[in-house]
């Protein structure tokens, strides 16, 4: 482990890193902060001891919520002396097979027994364990492991892990977008390094982050956002290096119409009175840090001076100005950001459009498709099929797109064990729907009336007659 | 003869010595010695990993005839391509046009000419084997955690459907090592990589992955297996993966193969085994008209404001809905994923 530390340095957990905690199928995104109590699966833990350890290490949670790296697994734990029944004809569910009581187990826990040891105790005190079939024994151990093993694995975040985490923990936050559906979106959207991709999502920033991961910091992403500001918590959980953020732009959709009409003003010259003030304040700007300090000092120990009135007034005045200045600086920054986003959009030559939102997709796509170059893919996610049916119709009426398909995916997990392979008993009922297609040039020729093959509606209308 | 196939050159030489394709042999060697210099991809030329705007001589373009009907064209000055809507003349109809343009063919019909993408290639490529389709490819790409810069090993290459998608995702800094035991297929796909201007990102090896492995050690972030007996290649997958760990995926149509592969993966210390099946469901959007039944005049109903008396005979409701295709692919293969821990 320690032999070539240099080579491994990028695989070590550092303070400030975004990580994902994992136990079984449960994930939780976190940032490593020293001395910070975090809750994971109803347990308070400290992540301090993980710093300097390698990613993918599994830790035991020991007393005080501290983490102790597990030793590399010993070849095979227990279960040598195999003694098993042939079937369950003699096993009666009378609730008496386990001799340990709830309290006994709690005492064992308090004595500091590890999960594995508790499970051994449970097995030793079970009167029926030996009569269970080999398969049932496996299942029993697996079940108990899940309950008593007190471990947590620290992972490096990735699109796969975060998509599964959100889908498992907070599907409502990501419009119930299942991970395999997200996978389809990234592929159908041909998201790759060096392209310019527009993203409109209300999936907590997960879709945005996934797109950015696939671009690897090359090219540019424009986040088209609704409301007051872009939501990016999911993207931030990816823990991207700083230069990734340089490729990210943001554009409020409330300006889309103005931008398309060419009336959007990004210079801010005609904006407001606040603007004019900024010119006056500009000279003073350098003094800002000092002024701020002064203000704070006065804030601290209350000055029992007779000059209070004037001092107070001056202070209030100063603070007001500070506030204005800060506001102004923010506005200025916002304008610059807007201008940068506009520069990305103006050419109407984006390489891809990814939509995953709770908004009705028709208006979103009709508004944003105009920013795409011809022969570029777009993908729209919706939790509801009907919304995409309408969207499909709109796109057909409007023209300018080909290869438009409405799809969803069906995902099934399998248990694979010797002689016991079968689909899992539960599966996801649905992962949402996708409408995907490719833009084409409209300038040379308007879509004529004689739309061929593309129009299943016209061709198949007979369906009802023939089958009726 | 096969035991010292350490480098690509010898691997190819060993395989191709006996055959007559010396030209190809030479070409490969040239390519291998100067991997990137032959055809520089500047931003304005078509490539499968970079968009361009205008169709140029030497490009590969995708002709879109209709849904489920596309064909690739090698654009060449003076050449012509026949479609069911008539002839496309490359010099006048394609070269200099924008990708996405509508092209009117000689018979008066028209088609759209699209910029190639791995997804369009998957539905239009010449099949030399069974191929992987986009639904599986998308799942594989995410679950293998591929991204720009990833180093990937793949076997078999087959017709290159997945290879192109991998290359798109790992460009511009990643690399694909792909192993195909069938010589002609290996040669053909290497040729295509060149035509698609992705050859600087890929090394094609003509060898048997079960016997000779991937030809690289400790470099891969991910390994993909689509071979008849993946369990025989699991140890090679482990060898190819980075010491720090990585992901592996095996695609098999039969559950017995999955069973054996999972056993081999566990024996080799792989973790987080997960087998899934993913299927695409297409919904055809259409308007259906559903007639309303005629129960005759209703005496109990209050007389309506419009005194037509009875409902019109042919009352029906038009409904916008989707129908499933009559038949769909109900099985492609099982995808088994696993993580190689640090060793």
Task: Please provide a brief summary of the model.
Chain A: It is found in: Nucleus. The complex is a heterodimer of chains A (468) and B (343). Chain A has 468 residues and is an alpha/beta fold.
Features:
heterodimer; A: 468 residues; alpha/beta; 5-stranded antiparallel β-sheet; 17 helices; B: 343 residues; Rossmann fold; 4-stranded antiparallel β-sheet; 14 strands; TRM61_C (chain B); S-adenosyl-L-methionine (chain B); tRNA (adenine(58)-N1)-methyltransferase activity (chain B); methyltransferase (chain B); acetylation (chain B)
Structure report:
The complex is a heterodimer of chains A (468) and B (343). With 468 residues, chain A is an alpha/beta fold. Chain A has a domain at 158-267 and 329-468: Vaccinia Virus protein VP39 (Rossmann fold), CATH 3.40.50.150. In chain A, 38% of the residues lie in helices and 18% in strands. Chain A has 17 helices and 15 strands. Chain A has an eight-stranded mixed β-sheet, sandwiched between helices. A five-stranded antiparallel β-sheet of chain A has the order 2-1-7-5-6, with helices on one face. In chain A, strands 3-4 form a two-stranded antiparallel ribbon. Chain A starts with a helix and ends with a helix. Residues 75-79, 270-304 and 444-468 of chain A have low confidence and may be disordered. Chain B has 343 residues and is α/β, with parallel strands linked by helices. Chain B has a domain at 127-278 and 332-340: Rossmann fold, CATH 3.40.50.150. Chain B contains ten helices and 14 strands. Chain B has helices spanning 8-17, 22-33, 90-94, 118-124, 134-143, 161-170, 183-195, 209-212, 234-240, 255-267, and strands at 60-66, 69-74, 80-83, 86-89, 102-104, 110-114, 151-155, 175-179, 202-205, 222-225, 246-252, 271-291, 316-323, 334-340. Chain B has an eight-stranded mixed β-sheet, with helices on both faces. In chain B, strands 2-1-6-5 form a four-stranded antiparallel β-sheet, with helices on one face. In chain B, helix 1 (8-17) packs antiparallel against helix 2 (22-33) and helix 4 (118-124) runs antiparallel to helix 6. The interface between A and B is large, with 73 and 76 residues. Strand 13 of chain A pairs antiparallel with strand 12 of chain B.
């Amino acid at each position: 482990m320690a032999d070539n530390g240099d080579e491994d340095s990028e695989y070590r957990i550092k303070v400030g890193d975004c990580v994902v905690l994992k136990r079984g199928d449960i994930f939780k995104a976190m940032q490593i902060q020293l001395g910070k109590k975090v809750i994971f699966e109803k347990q308070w833990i400290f992540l301090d001891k993980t710093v300097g350890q390698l990613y993918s290490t599994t830790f035991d949670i020991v007393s005080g919520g501290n983490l102790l790296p597990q030793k590399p697994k010993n070849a095979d734990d227990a279960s040598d002396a195999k003694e098993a029944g042939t079937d369950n004809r003699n096993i009666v569910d009378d609730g008496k097979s386990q001799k340990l009581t709830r309290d006994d187990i709690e005492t064992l826990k308090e004595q500091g027994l590890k999960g594995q040891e508790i499970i051994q105790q449970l097995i030793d005190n079970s009167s029926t364990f030996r009569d269970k079939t080999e398969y049932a024994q496996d299942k029993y151990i697996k079940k108990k492991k899940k309950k008593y093993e007190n471990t947590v694995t620290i992972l490096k975040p990735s699109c796969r892990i975060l998509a599964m985490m959100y889908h498992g923990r907070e599907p409502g936050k990501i419009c119930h977008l299942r991970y395999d559906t997200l996978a389809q979106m990234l592929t159908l959207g041909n998201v790759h390094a060096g392209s310019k991709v527009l993203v409109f999502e209300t999936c907590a920033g997960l879709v945005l982050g996934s797109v950015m991961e696939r671009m690897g910091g090359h090219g540019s992403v424009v986040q088209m956002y609704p409301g007051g500001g872009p939501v990016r918590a999911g993207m931030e959980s990816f823990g991207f290096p700083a230069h990734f953020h340089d490729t990210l732009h943001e554009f409020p959709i409330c300006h889309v119409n103005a931008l398309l009409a060419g009336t959007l003003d990004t210079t801010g010259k005609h904006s407001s009175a606040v603007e004019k003030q900024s010119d006056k304040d500009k000279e003073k700007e350098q003094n800002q840090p000092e002024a701020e300090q002064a203000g704070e000092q006065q804030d601290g120990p209350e000055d029992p001076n007779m000059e209070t009135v004037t001092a107070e007034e001056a202070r209030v005045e100063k603070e007001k100005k500070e506030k204005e200045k800060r506001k102004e600086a923010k506005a200025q920054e916002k304008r610059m950001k807007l201008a940068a986003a506009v520069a990305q959009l103006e050419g109407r030559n984006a390489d891809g459009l990814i939509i995953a939102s709770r908004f009705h997709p028709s208006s979103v796509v009709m508004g944003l498709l105009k920013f795409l170059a011809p022969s570029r893919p777009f993908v729209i996610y919706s939790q509801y099929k009907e919304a995409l049916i309408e969207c499909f119709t709109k796109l057909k009426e409007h023209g300018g797109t080909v290869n438009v398909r409405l799809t969803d995916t069906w995902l099934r997990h399998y248990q694979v064990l010797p002689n016991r392979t079968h689909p899992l008993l539960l599966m996801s009922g649905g992962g949402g729907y996708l409408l995907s297609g490719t833009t084409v040039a409209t300038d040379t020729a308007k879509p004529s009336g004689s739309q061929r093959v593309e129009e299943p509606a016209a061709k198949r209308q007979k369906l009802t007659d023939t089958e009726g | 003869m096969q035991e010292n196939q350490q480098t690509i050159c010898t691997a190819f030489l060993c395989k191709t010595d006996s055959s007559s394709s010396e030209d190809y042999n030479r070409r490969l060697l040239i390519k291998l010695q100067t991997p990137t210099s032959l055809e520089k991809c500047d931003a304005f030329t078509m490539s499968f990993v970079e968009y361009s705007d205008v169709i140029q001589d030497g490009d590969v373009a995708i002709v879109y005839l209709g849904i489920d009907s596309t064909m690739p064209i090698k654009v060449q000055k003076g050449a012509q391509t026949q479609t069911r809507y008539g002839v496309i003349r490359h010099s006048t109809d394609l070269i200099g046009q924008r990708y996405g343009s509508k092209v009117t063919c000689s018979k008066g019909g028209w088609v759209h000419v699209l910029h190639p993408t791995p997804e369009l290639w998957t539905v239009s490529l010449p099949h030399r084997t069974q191929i992987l389709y986009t639904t599986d490819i998308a799942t594989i790409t995410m679950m293998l955690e591929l991204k720009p810069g990833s180093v990937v090993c793949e076997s078999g290459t087959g017709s290159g459907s997945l290879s192109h998608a991998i290359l798109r995702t790992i460009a511009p800094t990643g690399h694909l090592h792909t192993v195909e035991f069938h010589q002609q297929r290996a040669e053909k796909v290497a040729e295509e990589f060149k035509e698609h201007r992705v050859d600087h990102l890929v090394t094609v090896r003509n060898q048997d992955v079960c016997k000779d492995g991937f030809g690289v050690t400790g470099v891969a972030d991910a390994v993909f297996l689509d071979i008849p007996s993946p369990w025989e290649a699991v140890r090679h997958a482990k060898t190819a993966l980075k010491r720090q760990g990585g992901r592996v995926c095996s695609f098999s149509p039969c559950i017995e193969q999955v069973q054996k592969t999972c056993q081999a993966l566990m024996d080799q210390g792989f973790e987080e085994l997960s087998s899934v099946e993913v299927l695409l469901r297409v919904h055809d959007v259409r308007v259906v008209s559903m007639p309303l039944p005629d129960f005759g005049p209703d005496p109990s109903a209050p007389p309506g404001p419009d005194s037509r008396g009875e409902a019109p005979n042919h009352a029906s409701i038009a409904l916008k809905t989707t129908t499933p295709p009559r038949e769909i692919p109900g099985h492609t293969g099982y995808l088994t994923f696993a993580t190689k821990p640090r060793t």
